[in-house]
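Mods, move this if it's the wrong board.
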Amino acid sequence: MNNMMVGITKGFIYKMRTVNNHFPINAGIAKDGKSIEIKNFLGGKARFNIKLNEGCKVENSKALKDELIFTGIDNQGLAQSCAQISQCCSIGRKDDRKFLDGIYVQHKG
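Not the wrong board. Structure tokens:
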């Protein structure tokens, strides 16, 4: 009940950062802000198109070039959308101490 009241009055914000060491990750955002396309993850040709949950929007940060800002009134839907993006950027069976590439949640609020 508390999350619903906070969501309607203030809204929720999640900030995610793209971290790359080997290959630059390209994150393309649709014009309506309802979906995001991730390209060139670990140099692969696969494209990941993630449609955000209803009520969630994404935009590029104006302050930092590698930051994505997710906004919405539903905390659970916003967290689920961010989790889908993090899961599509898994490095698989590579050593995670060396391959730090991915998109990670930086701030929840």
